[in-house]
Amino acid sequence: MKPSPSAEAGDVSALSSLDDPVRRRLYDYVCEQGGPVSRDEASAAAGIGRTLAAYHLDKLEGAGLLTAAFQRPEGRGGPGAGRPAKLYTRADREFAVTVPPRDYELLTHLLLESAERDGSGVVRGAAGDAAERAGRTAGREARESAPRTGRPDAVITAALRGCGYQPSVQPDGDIALRNCPFDRAARTHRDIVCGLNLRMLRGVLEGTGDDPDRAALEPLEGRCCVVVRARG
User: Fold this and answer.
1) Domain boundary assignment for the chain
2) May I ask the CATH architecture of the domain 5-90?
3) Over the stretch 132-168, which tens digit does the pLDDT of each residue have?
4) What is the sign, positive or negative, of the torsion defined by CA atoms of 213, 32, 222, 10?
């Protein structure tokens, strides 16, 4: 469904909240975590005071970019347990702004429907090839601009961010993707979109000089259907 003018105005207002560099840093940190984030954790990650972090986090919540819930620390309850902590997570809402308005969603739907109706598989194969080429380009550019020192997967996560993903390195070394840049299209064409995600991530890995077979399909609720496996 095409967003209404009022919805588009709300998207503009929400996204303008990310103009502030501190607010953007906090938003990115929350999005990359595997679970809810407290004000203390966010302030430490951003290198700012807790009060200032709370102010910006609440602004992001008010803009619809984050959601929040109150929760007591694990194992603590009853009288004397203290006040519940406010914890933040990335909102599932999708934001899209074009000025003047463009209906790229319709074009996406037409292309995906064409791929589904093509019994020969030629259209789907060509789209997959294009996705892999785009991933290789993003990976190569990230590798060429990366500093010589840093975390082993820093180049890959930088490339993934450039493609619109929100990567999060897990304790076991896997890289989970907290969002799907094509979520709205995936709701009606999941099989094709997941396949394109996989081909794009294989291209990203190849472009960074890594093993493309690290990309694997692992659909889970609330994140992208592809995960980058830890190095063996």
Assistant:
1) 5-90, 106-228
2) Orthogonal Bundle (1.10)
3) 999 999 999 999 988 776 677 899 999 999 998 989 8
4) negative
